[in-house]
Amino acid sequence: MKVLIIGLGSIGKKHVAALRSINPSIQIDALRSSKSNVELEGIFNYYEFNEIKENKYDFAIISNPTSEHKRTIEQVVQLNIPLFIEKPLFHNLDIEDLIQNVVQHNITTYVACNLRFLNSLIFLKKYLTTTSIRINEINVYCGSYLPDWRKDTDYKKNYSAIPELGGGVHIDLIHEIDYLYWFFGMPNNTHRFFSNKSSLNIAAYDYANYILEYENFNVNIILNYFRRDAKRSCEIILEDCTITADLLKNKIIDSNQKIIFESDQKMIETYKNQLEYFITCIKHNSKPFNTIEDAYNLLKICLNS
């Protein structure tokens, strides 16, 4: 297997590790933005797109900054290979022509939202689709401390803190909206509020609040970059009880603190799980979930005024 990766930051390195755990003999080429970037062992670097145009790859991973995705996808479409695109797809909605181009070329796409492979969410989706108990309300929360994300870098200089590079908690933590879209589809209406008032003192939004209106219930979503004691949860208020998924502990409890489900799966394992899924889709010529079109629907939820 031969894979092209574009973007070897922290998330790109996770994808490389996942690929090597799946297939230790895999050949990985990287299209780098600068010769000053640190080289990774076993990866052959290219610096111009024209240098790779004649190479044959099984698929490409796009994991460079969000603001570069549009330009990168426009280039890589020329290779006519499947695309594994790191979330979020882009930082604005001005990509309709790009999506049409990808679809017209019949290119297999998957936009990586690894929480879809977290065991507690897989269980929760099945639970909600097989139970007849009515949902009255859902509260989703994701808060963590941005300076702790990449301890060897200045958080203010990372793309997450810079709007022009596609940063901002409203799309950087798009996973929460993604799994709700995966569970329930597009909401009937969406209300949004974004701000950057915290002590982090960054230009990008560090707080986001969404309310999604579905036919029989509403969903409240709170996202932030400034919570030191990280919390990631999904509370579902049913007609007769409340169940809460703790995504950091990968378990689900009911109103009486009884454990409904738990798993010893670690979050890092979901990166391998999703690449295995994508590779299987390629081998069987099947359409993955969360295609580029789905990811664009997700952006509409996040960004439409």
How are the elements arranged and paired?
Blueprint: E1 2-6, H1 10-22, E2 27-31, E3 43-46, E4 59-62, H2 69-76, E5 83-86, H3 96-104, E6 109-112, H4 119-130, E7 135-145, H5 169-172, H6 175-184, E8 189-195, E9 207-213, E10 218-224, E11 226-238, E12 242-246, E13 251-253, E14 259-262, H7 269-283, H8 292-303
Parallel strand pairs: 1-2, 1-4, 2-3, 4-5, 5-6, 7-10
Antiparallel strand pairs: 7-11, 8-9, 9-10, 11-12, 12-13, 13-14
Helix pairs in contact: 1-7
Lateral arrangement of strands in the main beta sheet:
8-9-10-7-11-12-13-14
Sequence of secondary-structure elements: EHEEEHEHEHEHHEEEEEEEHH
Helix content: 25-40%
CATH topology of the largest domain: Dihydrodipicolinate Reductase, domain 2
CATH architectural grouping of the largest domain: 2-Layer Sandwich
State the end-to-end distance: 43 Å
Biggest beta sheet attributes: 8 strands, mixed
CATH class of the largest domain: Alpha Beta
| Helix count, DSSP H or I runs of 4 or more residues | 8
The Cα radius of gyration reads 20 Å
Structural class by helix and strand composition? alpha/beta
Number of strands: 14
- Broad shape: globular
The amount of beta strand, in percent, is 25-35%
Whole-number mean pLDDT = 95
Give the count of structural domains.
2
Low-confidence segments, given as residue ranges, are none
